[in-house]
Amino acid sequence: MGHRADVVERVLALGHRRLDESLQLLTENAAWLPGPGRPVVRGHDEIRAFVAAELQRLGSAVPDAVPAMLFERESVVLVLGQIRIPHKERARPYTEMQPIGWVYEFDGDLIGRVSAFGSWEKARAAAGVPAGTPPTRLLKGGLWHPAVAVRRPQLRRWWPAPAPGF
Q: Given the DSSP bridges, would you call strands 26-33 and 110-117 parallel, antiparallel or unpaired?
């Protein structure tokens, strides 16, 4: 285990800025579901055209993906995080944060399908990862780290026990 999580980490790091390198990690006929109510985009050429059109449409207000945790499960990798949406066109610009989940389904060693969900619950359900399942990796300080459970030693009292009768 770990190879598929490594591939997803690489795709997330490359993003749309290095799209051609990202596409090398997807099958030639990969399907991308950019979100609810959006049409499925298929294959490298359609994905490239879709990303170019979205970047042109959004201009300088391109949302920024902020992944937080990754779950690897058989041929599926689930990533949960937030999307940072800048609103610059207003008198008082602000940034909106929304939850987002991505489900990466593998076909062999490459990604065959990517689906985006507007809630962690829907993404978990699509990936078959129940709530409460610990993540495989966590993103901390810009780097992915294994998410391992650490047993903490039981605390010992350093003060004397109360005298009988108290």
A: parallel
Cα 81–chain centre separation: 5
- Helix (H, G, I), strand (E, B), or coil: what is residue 78? strand
E strands, 74-154, where? 76-87, 94-107, 110-117, 137-140, 143-146
Domains of the chain by start residue, with CATH: 3-146 (3.10.450.50)
Handedness of CA 115, 116, 119, 120 (dihedral sign): positive
Q: At 71, which helix (H) or strand (E)?
A: strand 64-73
Confidence of residue 166 (pLDDT cuts 50, 70, 90): very low
Q: DSSP assignment, residue 65?
A: E
pLDDT at 165: 57
Taking the whole predicted model, whether its pTM rises above 0.90 is answered as no
Q: Which helix (H) or strand (E) holds 11?
A: helix 3-14
